[in-house]
């Protein structure tokens, strides 16, 4: 595997429970230039492809990649560029939008549970169950979730963090590895990207007036993401706060963490038993005999 000794991803991994997003430089690029970043990304993609093939063949483990961010931070582009080159047969992407009436009739983890990748697959969540402790909390959407009155008290968010932690730990114990990324963009960079969606015709489709409305809650969102990251970053499902003012750099960091995680999972291509290995010679002889018969068959 390719080694990128000068690229430090540990600085973005949350191990300290005192999380302050203001202390993370959204403009960080570790002294790299864009061309170098693209080259390293391409190298990571090659390694990820090899590791994914082993993961798929092994069929015992799965990797879940969670992407959370403020609007315009680059989640879609990250999925498109980082996962380019992987085998679509072993990759599963799910975007979580506003819950449907069917989903509201279930518990809040139901729709996430049913979207889990199969063993051997890589699952990518564009937004996730963390919407249920960030957006839902900010806008007090629990009132629309058809919950019994006794659970709608001041302890509901503390309990949800506990439920999420228990669920993620359970998944890890079942062979489902999870890594979570918060693409950390500055308010000014977000403003410029939203403006570009208005001024550039080929980006008009991306623009939503709701993005402007949500921007008014910037400080509240930052505080809620800090709380969520602080309370749910563990060795079995770590959070990474990734600088996102430079799209190419955030993609590089995500690719490096995914590559390193897959390597740590160490998937192995299944080995045949001695009996199965012996049988290979028999099947080879049969196929070779069939080939000889086909070549010797008279032509009409």
How do the strands and helices of this protein lay out in sequence?
Elements: H1 34-58, E1 62-69, H2 75-82, E2 91-95, H3 101-104, H4 110-113, E3 122-126, H5 135-138, H6 156-173, E4 176-184, H7 187-199, H8 209-215, H9 218-232, E5 239-243, H10 247-265, H11 274-296
Parallel strand pairs: 1-3, 1-4, 2-3, 4-5
Please characterize this protein's 3D structure:
With 300 residues, the chain is α/β, with parallel strands linked by helices. Helices cover 47% and strands 11% of the residues. It has 11 helices and 5 strands; from the N terminus they run αβαβααβααβαααβαα. The chain has helices spanning 34-58, 75-82, 101-104, 110-113, 135-138, 156-173, 187-199, 209-215, 218-232, 247-265, 274-296; strands spanning 62-69, 91-95, 122-126, 176-184, 239-243. A 5-stranded parallel sheet has the order 2-3-1-4-5, sandwiched between helices. The longest helix has 25 residues, at 34-58. It is globular and about 80 Å long. The N and C termini lie far apart (54 Å).
């Amino acid at each position: 595997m390719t080694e990128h000794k000068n690229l430090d991803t540990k600085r973005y991994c949350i191990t300290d429970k005192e999380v302050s997003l203001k202390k993370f430089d959204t403009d960080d690029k570790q002294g790299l230039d864009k061309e170098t970043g693209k080259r390293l990304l391409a190298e990571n993609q090659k390694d990820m492809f090899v590791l994914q093939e082993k993961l798929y063949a092994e069929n015992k483990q799965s990797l879940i990649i969670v992407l959370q961010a403020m609007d315009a931070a680059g989640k879609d582009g990250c999925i498109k560029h980082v996962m380019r080159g992987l085998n679509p047969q072993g990759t599963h992407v799910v975007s979580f939008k506003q819950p449907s009436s069917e989903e509201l009739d279930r518990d809040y983890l139901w729709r996430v549970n049913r979207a889990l990748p199969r063993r051997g697959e890589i699952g990518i969540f564009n937004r996730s169950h963390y919407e249920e402790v960030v957006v839902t909390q900010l806008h007090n959407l629990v009132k629309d979730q058809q919950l019994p009155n006794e659970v709608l008290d001041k302890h509901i968010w503390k309990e949800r963090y506990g439920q999420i932690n228990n669920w993620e730990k359970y998944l890890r114990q079942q062979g489902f590895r999870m890594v979570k990324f918060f693409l950390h963009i500055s308010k000014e960079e977000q403003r410029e990207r939203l403006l570009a969606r208005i001024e550039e015709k080929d980006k008009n489709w991306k623009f939503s007036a709701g993005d402007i409305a949500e921007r008014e809650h910037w400080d509240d969102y930052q505080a809620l993401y800090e709380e969520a990251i602080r309370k749910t970053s563990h060795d079995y499902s770590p959070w990474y706060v990734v600088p996102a003012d430079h799209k190419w750099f955030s993609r590089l960091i995500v690719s490096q963490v995914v590559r390193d995680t897959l390597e740590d999972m160490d998937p192995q291509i299944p080995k045949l038993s001695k009996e199965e290995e012996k049988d290979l010679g028999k099947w080879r002889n049969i196929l070779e005999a069939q080939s000889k018969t086909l070549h010797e068959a008279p032509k009409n």
